[in-house]
Amino acid sequence: MVEASQLPEFVFNEATVRERWDLEPFLEGCAARGLSRASLWGDEIDKVGLKEARRMLARTGISTFGFNRAGPLLGAGTAGRTECLDRARRAVDMAAELAADHVLVFSGGLMEGSRDLSGARAQTEEALGELLDHARTVGMTLALEPLHPMVAGDRAVILSLSHANALCERLGGGIGIVADAYHIWWDERLEAELARAGAAGRILGFHVSDWLVPTRHVLRDRGMMGDGIIDLAGMWRQVQAAGYAGPVEIEIFSDRWWAEDPDLVLDTALARCRSIFS
Ligand code: ZN
Hints:
Elements: E1 10-13, H1 23-32, E2 37-41, H2 42-48, H3 50-60, E3 63-70, H4 77-97, E4 102-105, H5 117-138, E5 142-144, H6 161-171, E6 175-180, H7 181-184, H8 190-199, E7 203-208, H9 232-241, E8 248-250, H10 255-258, H11 262-276
Parallel strand pairs: 1-2, 1-8, 2-3, 3-4, 4-5, 5-6, 6-7, 7-8
This protein binds zinc ion (ZN).
């Protein structure tokens, strides 16, 4: 007998519609589609205040999956680093207040004028260790999301699953990995590193969008699932084979989709996901 294919849970990252919708319509849009969790951004929470955000979450019955984000961790000089770390700790606290599943950590890129990538990586690891000490005290899990190597110049120094896995292994419990298809699809070690992360139970999330050819902007031109060249269904099989049983998170940073009616964006994304991830 052939078993009916089962759909995963779908979660929207608020960034997908943030240009047109504030927090409340976003949560209502998720609830109207029968979703129960969403991934939120601290700057959107700040606009309404934490108390009001929690009220909106309660009213719509939506709970927080990912919280974006703690970082940048890389600051200039001792004072800059201390300030970054303090801010990151406050983001972890906010994630805990919102009972998020995990908080995304954003390393930030090289300091202006610097060419010391390995130094920046060492500094990031040190800051991660300190942030992790704090996160453990408030019971919040940190998530490393390796970003595409194209953003190494200005946004991130953790650029592969291999690096993220190695960091998690050195740092111990309380930290895991979010696998974002857009950032990692090119990696020839993809399957092996997903399996490595999965074997340690550290895959915390799976983010989807698509890689368009040509890509006009590395930050603001992600594709709708199915419009690009990523084998999303194949990657989902690998993520599941690695033991991940969590939701598929839709996260599309795109000028093209930000210009559309958010209702259409959510409906289109869900329809695409239901056919790709069935
Ligand atoms: Zn992501």
